[in-house]
Amino acid sequence: MGLNSCLYECVIVHRRLRPRQYAFEHKMMMLYADLDELDAIDRSTRLLSRERGNLYSFRDADYFPTGTGAGLKCRVSAWLRERGIELGEAGRVRLLQCDKMALCTPASGPPACSAAPQGLSAS
After folding, report:
1. What are the start-end ranges of the H helices in 18-71?
2. Per the CB 3.0–4.6 Å rule, which of 11, 16, 35, 107 could disulfide with 93?
3. Structural domain count of the chain
4. What are the tens digits of pLDDT across the range 40-59?
5. Are the C-beta atoms of 30 and 97 separated by less than 8 Å?
């Protein structure tokens, strides 16, 4: 069975017209990760690790901070449950991430997520 997680190659484009014209492009990679697949990703690649240092390192504590020691999917599920949304056993939580910046939730303030029938998606 294949993974739902993948890497996206992106180009960020910025153009400014005032006060003087300026433009640039920047290439970057974004990780779209199904949280249930993080351990499989860790085992299958040498470049990305979970909960340990590497070229790319995914640490649960960097995302959706709540002060509890529970895993990331458990914290997201609890947050949804508090708002009347039951993820269920088969529910999926997916995160779109770039350069240690969670697009699913800001470091401060309420999470910027939306519940979808298939799971949780960044809004």
Report:
1. 38-44
2. 35
3. 1
4. 999 998 888 888 888 788 88
5. yes
